[in-house]
Amino acid sequence: MYPGGRIPELASARGIEPLATSGNTVGNAKEGSVSGGIVVASGVKKTYDTGKIKVDALRGVDLSIKEGEMIAVMGPSGCGKTTLLNCLSGLDDITRGEILIRGKPLSKMNDKVRTAYRASKIGFIFQAYNLLPVLTAAENVELPLLISGTAPKEARKKAIESLKSVGLEDWQSHKPAELSGGQQQRVTIARSLVNKPEIVFGDEPTGNLDSESSKDIMALLRKLNKENNQTFIIVTHDYNVGKLADRIVMMRDGVIEKEFAPQPF
What dotted CATH number matches 25-260? Predict the structure, then answer.
């Protein structure tokens, strides 16, 4: 039962917050842009302007990600990898260029369309678990469904199915404080996958975990990626995480420096 008998507000819970209102994209995608992927970025630039200083976080990124592919975006701190993830997912607007999701430009979607698409087709996994401490695992997982209008009985059924997929069916009645860090991240993954998204974005999903838990979580993500043919875009600083992806995209100073398939050990 939810405290107070109502669904709690989630304005501060990253990963299930409403999509930011789209601004106007300046310029067009440049000629020769990459194509053919479920997510395509062409000539993407992002500048943060405080009024006193401008920071070019992305300086012209071209990237195509195939459906069912898992990629790891890596690079030194401040290289633009999290900014790229935020722009690809629609959390942040771009300054110039174009981003296509299944051939549809994000810049042409109004706020309502982008919000609906994100709620139904995109999942997010962050370094911070962002679980509501007063709710059980099942209640945390079903919350995005309830907010989007799914009937409570159906939402609970889907939540339990999602928890089962990450090996936590028997922990559905436990609250976050009663779970280990690895288990909490599994609940987060279950929540991100409960709407069966086409694309899953992960920002340092193993950053708060020890090496063994990190290995377990990545094995789980890889398993789900293969079983469901979902596209995973993961930002990480850890090569032990990156090497499990199909492709590593290395960034430096706001541009893609190189891309390669990791070598098996």
Answer: 3.40.50.300
